Amino acid sequence: MAVQTAFKHPFDTAISSGLRFLVEVLAWVAGPWAAAQHSLWFAIPAAVILVGLPAIFSTVGDKKQVIITTPGILRVLLELVLHAVAVVAAWLVWPDWLAAITTLVVIAGLATGIPRTKWLLQGAID
């Protein structure tokens, strides 16, 4: 059996990737929750879109597995949409204290992800 080595990203840390994943989870929960406030029929497509898009569209060198190759700028835009969904949806459907924590997590995720974001915007070249 071949031993798999851990994927090592040149501009990402455990903290920045962990916060980015937490922001994705917050968007995956808050987004469909907010969509369900309008109609339960909106919740499932919202969840599929919010989970599916970042899983399918990746930039080479940014993830271990790339399904559909995406330029760095588009990956950044996709992630900014997820960040916005997490914040806006949280303020729409959750108590203020939880929405405030969500906002702080998003800000921390953006701040710790600056090196990776710059790398993606510069064409994702090592």
Task: Name some characteristics of this structure.
mainly alpha
Give structural notes.
This protein starts with 13 loop residues before the first helix and ends in a 5-residue tail after the last helix. The protein is 71% helix and 3% strand. The model has no long low-confidence stretch (mean pLDDT 90). It has helices spanning 14-38, 40-56, 72-93, 96-112, 114-121; strands at 57-58, 68-69. It is mainly alpha-helical and 126 residues long. The chain is built from 5 helices and 2 strands; from the N terminus they run ααββααα. Helix 1 (14-38) packs antiparallel against helix 4. It has a two-stranded parallel sheet with strand order 1-2.
Number of strands: 2
Strand order of the largest sheet: 1-2
- The fraction of residues assigned to DSSP E strands is under 5%
Sheet/helix structural class:
mainly alpha
Give the helix level as a range of percent: over 70%
How would you summarize what this structure contains?
The protein has 5 helices and 2 strands; from the N terminus they run ααββααα.
Topology overview:
Elements lengths: L13 H25 L1 H17 E2 L9 E2 L2 H22 L2 H17 L1 H8 L5
Parallel strand pairs: 1-2
Helix pairs in contact: 1-2, 1-3, 1-4, 3-4, 3-5
